[in-house]
Amino acid sequence: MPTGGVRVGCQTLGVDTGVDDGIGRRLLTRVLAGVPAGESPLTHVADLPARIATHTDWPSWADPAVVDALRGTGVPRPWTHQVDAATLARTGHHVVVATGTGSGKSLAYQLPVLTALRADPKATALYLSPTKALGADQLRSVKALDLADTRPASYDGDTSMGERDWVRAHGRWVFTNPDMLHRGFLPQHARWARLWRRLRYVVIDECHAYRGVFGSHVALLLRRLRRVAAKYGADPVFVLASATVADPGALASRLTGVTCAAVTEDGSPRGARTVALWEPPLLPKLAGENGAPVRRAAGTEAARIMADLVIEGARTLTFVRSRRGAELAALTAKRVLSEVSDSLPRRVAAYRSGYLAEDRRALERSLDSGELLGVASTNALELGVDIAGLDAVVVAGYPGTLASFWQQAGRAGRSGDGALVVFVAREDPLDTYLVHNPHAMLDRPVEATVLDPSNPYVLAPHLACAAAELPLTESCLDDFGGPAARKLVDELVAEQTLRRRPAGWYWTSRELPHASVDIRGSGGAQVAVVEADSGRLLGTVDPASACWSVHPGAVHLHQGASFVVDELDLGEGLALVHAENPDWTTQPRDVVDISVVRVVERRDYGGVRTFLGEVDVTSQVVGYLRRLPTGEVLDQVPLDLPARTLRTRAVWYTIADDLLAGLGKRGKRNAPGGAGVIPTHIPGALHAAEHAAIGLLPLFATCDRWDIGGVSTATHADTGEATVFVHDGHPGGAGFADRGFAALVPWLVATREAIFSCECPAGCPSCVQSPKCGNGNEPLDKAGAVAVLDIVLTALGAGGDGDVQHGDSPVQANARSTPIS
Ligand SMILES: [Zn+2]
Ligand SMILES: [Zn+2]
Predict the structure, then answer these.
(1) Distance from Cα 592 to the centre of ligand 2, integer Å
(2) What is the DSSP letter of 79?
(3) Ligand 2 centroid from CA 780, angstroms
């Protein structure tokens, strides 16, 4: 506990406040007691009040046996939002229920679906979840209701051939996922005729997970589903469940293509929660890349916090961003705990999505039984594993969206006793911004979910799949985007993928197109990670990121064991590894080039111009850094891997030379952080502004910084001026660049603020250094970046003082809008 208490929120937190603190405050005091002298990581504390439950009666239309079964699970009376959503669905309205974690959203769809299945012995329903783990969990809870003749069954990649036949012939409520819908149900719709004919409900669980490219794919899949169901005479009601997101009705309607009502008034109770924002300290003796100061890693800090909480007997879940981070956090917590007691380390474990099914089940069981007290997880746990009654949640690194943050935080505080939530900032400009601007985290509505079903790279293959399922007609094109879809269909006809006949457009080949369409947007089959000696399959990685994550020499962690990659064979989809536990971690480096293909929209602000358009991005992983756990760099190892070119969308701005000429002078002023005068170099200033902008875009678009990239240059061949590009990381774009263009001013204001508020002298990973920089974070000029952003913001009419209100509309007072197509 820092002496004198920390002035935070609306009250002063101290060891001896004498106030009857709730559990959250008490746990926080214990955690702070373990902070080394001289460190003051706490930047803000807020107390979120408890919420009282609002109950209502079971609806009269519900089947009494279903009500009895649900009562038997410990629900004497339902909450208002459950019955509101269930009744809308029952009366034929598409509906999305968007309430907090643990608010019993499943009951909202179980009630109408099970009632319908029992009323009509031929009625059927589908359930879709973004992950198998969630689907399995929901299926278990429906089976446990033990209602005669409802025949819930799963049909996914793990279902045996024998079971598949049974489910097709007899399953009434089929639990599956979008991948299987795409590859199994729709292309072979005739084999599922029984299911389609009486399809009453389609349940879409955790629908906020369908964002970006994946969301765009799923939106088109659901349009295909509706078309096929209609062919068999069915018009199913969609029931969606979502985390609390901005405008869930619009999201659900965009996703399904039909108008959805939204139920958002949460009737479930919630314990009071204390939310602490935490910035790990700079470590004075260590130097990172280019001599930058190093902060204690968020995962390490979170592991120490979790260890303190486990010692207190608090059931704690720690969320970290990566699989590797989860493994490391569990190991670190175990190490800390082993100094306290021999028995405590085994009560901590790691959990992540890449585990094979049996590993996952074993961990879930230990969590259920309370055998484990501390679990470090990737956000796999965010989706679907039902863990209640946690005393504390530690979130190491911003999980990408506020919806995810609140969902993770929602694991804490279900009991009436209160709980602690600690957000630990990573070395990342967005995290830096958030711990210094708590209102952006605690008082903001969650962001709009971005998905773009009109992306031609996503839409064209779905049109081909749709035509292969049932001939496309003019009228069904409306549902796929109207004129844009029509234009793509004409292109598909021109390239002889489709054929035009009087009755519509037909798929021409004997082979179906589905297998070549990857709805996860990862572009092909997964790369298997295999231990060379034993032939054991450790897991899989996305092919698009294989060069990045399992390049030769990469250190790969699995279940706490460390492996080093010997060989990456992209042709075979295979990465061979051997067990080895080196002292270092590895960090890949790539080089990126960008060219403008087409300008979609452009605005002129005097010497500053802003653009939205299409670009070609060519990137190649060329080597990797070996780093010690402290962040220190050992060396850089070159690699020879293929380049790949991505056609996508980008937002960019250019600055005229005469405006930049002033930068030399402005750059001579004191650097933020008080490090004295630093000379400004234009490339370094642009590069630093680009990095920080990439880091902050996720505040405005529901993307991850790994979903986007950037390029900056003092003179770009296509613009002829100093240019900073930020581009989507997916073919055709996922709507992120468009969102950045629409929110340009607030985005750049937040970018400037994140750089300016970082206390480092000349740039560090918390502000302008990037973990994915192709140039090894050189050159970077932190003070120059602030000056560049001041120039741009002044030209855009937003001033450079960072005092602009947050919002999503760009300030266009000075703008001349020039749409170009
Ligand atoms: Zn910094
Ligand atoms: Zn860079």
Answers:
(1) 9
(2) B
(3) 8
